[in-house]
């Protein structure tokens, strides 16, 4: 929806008006046929139509483009009144800077900061409202450290509040200790399983080494027996040689 043309000071070129809402262009987009629209207006139009509302030429969302730079510059230079004019604001500024001004305008309605309060006041009156707001809070004068609402002053009991907080802290501490205990038990179980697996692997390796050692000893015994047999054969051959 475009800006109300009544807010503007002086003449506004027809080309800077939205072809749908007839307001001054807000966040403008341009169709291939060069007709311009507010972004919200043309998107709402194209939900139910597929053409330009001015000349009925085919238009889709993908064909929309930003406004030409010279038109955008002309639009930004337009002068208009603050939306809070009826509340007393006399500011007149360019369209380019109007949003920045209205966010800081002393006549803008803003919500009360206090939790639970639904009142909206002008920014310039906020401090006065906060001073009397029934939802305002202040630190307990007895020194317990709690911030209390004015309406709760009579019901506030420092000892009871501190006991409640202490119980909450105690409960939280117990929960944290239990969580730490469970985490440590989980880690120990994981390490225990890892050690058992590692022990099993080492035992298998030891058995394999024993088997290899047994085979090696058997091979050594076989070699020694063969050597004795060979020596005996040499001695027998030497005897036969001597007899000859």
Automatic annotation (TrEMBL):
<keyword id="KW-0175">Coiled coil</keyword>
<keyword id="KW-0863">Zinc-finger</keyword>
<dbReference type="InterPro" id="IPR013083">
    <property type="entry name" value="Znf_RING/FYVE/PHD"/>
</dbReference>
<dbReference type="InterPro" id="IPR001293">
    <property type="entry name" value="Znf_TRAF"/>
</dbReference>
<keyword id="KW-0862">Zinc</keyword>
<feature type="domain" description="RING-type">
    <location>
        <begin position="18"/>
        <end position="56"/>
    </location>
</feature>
<keyword id="KW-0436">Ligase</keyword>
<dbReference type="GO" id="GO:0016874">
    <property type="term" value="F:ligase activity"/>
</dbReference>
<feature type="domain" description="TRAF-type">
    <location>
        <begin position="101"/>
        <end position="144"/>
    </location>
</feature>
<dbReference type="InterPro" id="IPR001841">
    <property type="entry name" value="Znf_RING"/>
</dbReference>
<keyword id="KW-0479">Metal-binding</keyword>
<protein>
    <submittedName>
        <fullName>RNF41 ligase</fullName>
    </submittedName>
</protein>
<dbReference type="InterPro" id="IPR017907">
    <property type="entry name" value="Znf_RING_CS"/>
</dbReference>
<dbReference type="GO" id="GO:0008270">
    <property type="term" value="F:zinc ion binding"/>
</dbReference>
<dbReference type="Pfam" id="PF13923">
    <property type="entry name" value="zf-C3HC4_2"/>
</dbReference>
<feature type="zinc finger region" description="TRAF-type">
    <location>
        <begin position="101"/>
        <end position="144"/>
    </location>
</feature>
<dbReference type="GO" id="GO:0043122">
    <property type="term" value="P:regulation of canonical NF-kappaB signal transduction"/>
</dbReference>
<feature type="coiled-coil region">
    <location>
        <begin position="199"/>
        <end position="243"/>
    </location>
</feature>
């Amino acid at each position: 929806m475009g800006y109300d043309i009544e807010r503007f000071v002086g003449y506004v070129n027809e080309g800077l008006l939205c072809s749908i809402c007839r307001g001054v262009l807000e966040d403008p987009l341009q169709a291939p046929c060069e007709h311009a629209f507010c972004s919200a207006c043309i998107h709402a139009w194209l939900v139910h139509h597929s053409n330009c509302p001015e000349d009925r030429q085919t238009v889709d969302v993908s064909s929309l483009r930003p406004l030409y730079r010279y038109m955008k510059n002309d639009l930004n230079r337009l002068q208009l009144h603050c939306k809070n004019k009826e509340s007393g604001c006399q500011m007149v500024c360019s369209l380019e800077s109007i949003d920045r001004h209205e966010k800081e305008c002393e006549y803008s309605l803003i919500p009360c900061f206090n939790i639970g309060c639904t009142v909206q006041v002008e920014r310039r009156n906020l401090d006065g409202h906060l001073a009397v707001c029934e939802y305002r809070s202040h630190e307990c004068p007895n020194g317990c450290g709690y911030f209390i609402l004015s309406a709760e002053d009579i019901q506030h009991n420092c000892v009871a509040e501190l006991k409640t907080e202490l119980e909450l802290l105690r409960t939280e501490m117990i929960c944290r200790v239990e969580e730490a205990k469970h985490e440590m038990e989980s880690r120990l179980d994981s390490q225990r399983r890892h050690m058992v697996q590692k022990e099993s692997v080492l035992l298998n390796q030891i058995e394999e080494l024993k088997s290899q050692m047994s085979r090696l000893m058997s091979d050594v015994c076989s070699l020694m027996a063969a050597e004795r047999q060979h020596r005996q054969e040499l001695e027998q051959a030497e005897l036969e040689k001597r007899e000859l």
